[in-house]
Amino acid sequence: MILLCPRCGADLSVEFRGEWFRTREQCPDCGVALEDPPGMLRPSDEEVEYGLDEWLAADRAAVTAALAALDAPYRWESGLVLVVPAAAESDVDRLLDDIEGAEVDGGRTGWGR
């Protein structure tokens, strides 16, 4: 059962159906279909967390799309926290700075880390 969107990290509503639980089939924030989620990063001691709760869903989706294109593992945790391997920290920092810079240059604000 998927409780967080693999693309933007949003909480997904869960529907109780007797003995079964079912999540929404589409993310309410970014609209991704949840039938085939990407492989997620397994928990370990060597991780870095980024709180992206002030980022827009589209911007969080841009981050995970870039990570997927780089074949970089990640996972979302409650509270819109993006988790990546510690070995990828500098690359992810640059990626977040690039996305943040592009959005600020485009006139949008509302970023947080």
What value does the Rg take, in angstroms? 15 Å
Class computed from helices, strands and strand pairing:
alpha+beta
Distance between the termini: 28 Å
Globally, the shape reads globular
Proportion of beta-strand residues: 15-25%
Binned, the helix content reads 25-40%
Assembly status: single chain
One letter per element, helices H and strands E, the order comes to EEEHEEH
Care to count the β-strands? 5
Q: What is the total domain count? A: 1
What does this structure look like?
The protein has 113 residues and is α+β, with helices and mostly antiparallel strands. It has one domain. Helices cover 27% and strands 19% of the residues. It is built from two helices and five strands. The chain has a three-stranded antiparallel β-sheet with strand order 3-5-4, with no helix packed on it. A two-stranded antiparallel sheet has the order 1-2. A hairpin with a 2-residue loop joins strand 1 and strand 2. Helix 1 crosses helix 2. Residues 107-113 have low confidence and may be disordered.
